[in-house]
Amino acid sequence: MSPARSALDRGERLRAPLLIALWILLGFEAAGGLVLFGASLVAGRRPGEALHVLLGAVLAAVYTVYQWRHWRRVSPFRARPDYVLGLIAALVTALTLVSGLVLGGVWWTARSSPRTMPAYPAVLSAVHNIGSMLLIAFVGAHLGAAVRRDPAARRPSSARRAPGSGG
């Protein structure tokens, strides 16, 4: 495939409705999670919790479809930084989504009982909160490694610089 065609394909993929929906949902979930975490610490309240749970369930479905399609396009696994970081990002994302769905189940159960605040398991909450931060870090690192890899792959081998050669 020519470099021009590869760049065109990438541009089309980056504008795909599924990827855009995924980024929007991730943004809302990240912002909402930070608000929930901060408000819980500061005021003992969790504003927007219902929206966070609902969008988290939608995000889990959208991410599953996206990841399935993405893996079908990029498989098989290769021993390269973008693949390793992508695998870590996918595992952390899955762990964060599963822990969020379980916490959402606790929230849903508590809504039908007379208690005002659900009693979330501390370890599960920690896994979800730390996983959320790791998700942002590793998804960003994966994207950075993939973007950095592509220009190097398009240059002729004689134009590539050796690591540490100052360029």
From TrEMBL:
Keywords: Membrane, Transmembrane, Transmembrane helix. The chain crosses the membrane at residues 20-44, 50-66, 87-110, 130-147. It comes from the Bacteria. GO terms for cellular component: membrane. The keyword Transferase does not apply. The keyword Lipid metabolism does not apply. GO terms for biological process: respiratory electron transport chain. This is Cytochrome b561 bacterial/Ni-hydrogenase domain-containing protein. The lineage of its organism: Bacteria, Candidatus Eiseniibacteriota.
